[in-house]
Automatic annotation (TrEMBL):
Gene3D superfamilies: Ribosomal RNA adenine dimethylase-like, domain 2, Vaccinia Virus protein VP39. It catalyses: adenosine(1518)/adenosine(1519) in 16S rRNA + 4 S-adenosyl-L-methionine = N(6)-dimethyladenosine(1518)/N(6)-dimethyladenosine(1519) in 16S rRNA + 4 S-adenosyl-L-homocysteine + 4 H(+). Pfam families: RrnaAD. Its main location: cytoplasm. This is Ribosomal RNA small subunit methyltransferase A. Belongs to the class I-like SAM-binding methyltransferase superfamily. rRNA adenine N(6)-methyltransferase family. RsmA subfamily. PROSITE patterns: SAM_RNA_A_N6_MT. Keywords: Cytoplasm, Methyltransferase, RNA-binding, rRNA processing, S-adenosyl-L-methionine, Transferase. One of its GO terms (cellular component) is cytosol.
Length: 266
């Protein structure tokens, strides 16, 4: 097996924001976070040298990988011959995954590049009808933010929108020493498991808009941060508008969206 040089890894990290996992036990532990229920395909994002991939290939599931770095793709093609037909040399954020999955369900897993990790989550949320499970490694503070509850200082847009559709679990912390090159911060592994009933009792597009607008001015009360929605005076008198966004649970944000939706109809 031909191994990549450290120079290539450093270059890939520089341009792709990627830190290559080198600890086999951590890779195996991450691979074991997927439950293999409700889908027959798994997509690994940014496999690099395949340290996580090799453990996915041992499972009773069809493994696909998507990688933008040409040298990484060449390495995988040369060293994982059985995987070769399922290596997608594309940008995950720009590629239409239904070219591969044709509407079928699939899980997502990976050691996600720090610089696009939140964008990966948002794209997964857009495809929530096809993604029953999502697990992987983020910068620790991002993983904590996704899993945090109302009242936390890190509770925000990602927390509310991810937890509106998924149950979020922070699983374990990973130190910098298991990467090449080592990042300057700890990493965190999480799992998102889609809720049994993930169809919301509100306009979902409006929910996204309400949450994003509210947290853009998180220190203000909702009465002030949501002014652009042209709410009626009667609605603004509701006690919920005297709160700040981090005080609202996911369920409260859904109720808030319902209120705004109904106000617009009156």
């Amino acid at each position: 097996m031909v191994y990549k040089t450290n120079q290539h890894q450093v270059k890939a990290k520089k341009y792709l924001g990627q830190h290559f996992l080198k600890d086999e036990s951590v890779a195996q532990k991450i691979a074991n976070t997927i439950g293999l229920k409700g889908y027959k395909n798994v997509l690994e994002i940014g496999p690099g040298m395949g340290v996580l991939t090799k453990y996915l290939l041992k499972k009773n599931i069809e493994t696909f990988v998507i990688e933008i770095d040409t040298e990484s793709v060449e390495y995988l093609q040369a060293n994982y011959l059985n995987l070769a037909p399922r290596i997608i040399e594309k940008d995950f954020l720009k590629y239409d995954l239904n070219h591969i999955f044709k509407g079928e369900s699939f899980a997502i897993i990976g050691n996600f590049p720090y610089n696009i990790s939140t964008q990966i989550v948002f794209k997964a949320l857009e495809m929530r009808n096809q993604i029953p499970e999502f697990s992987g490694m983020f910068q620790k503070e991002v993983a904590q933010r996704i899993c945090s509850k109302e009242g936390s200082k890190v509770y925000g847009i990602l927390s509310v929108l991810a937890q509106a559709f998924y149950n979020a679990e922070y699983l374990f912390t990973v130190p910098p020493s298991v990467f090449n090159p080592p990042p300057k911060v700890d990493s965190g592994v999480l799992r998102l498991t889609r809720k049994e009933n993930y169809t919301l009792l509100c306009d979902e597009k409006l929910l996204f808009k309400v949450v994003k607008t509210a947290f853009q001015q998180r220190r203000k009360t909702l009465r002030n941060s949501l002014k652009t929605f042209n709410l009626s005076d009667n609605l603004k008198a509701n006690v919920i508008f005297g709160k700040r966004p981090e005080q609202l649970s996911v369920e409260a944000f859904i109720e808030l969206t319902q209120l705004i939706e109904n106000d617009a109809k009156d």
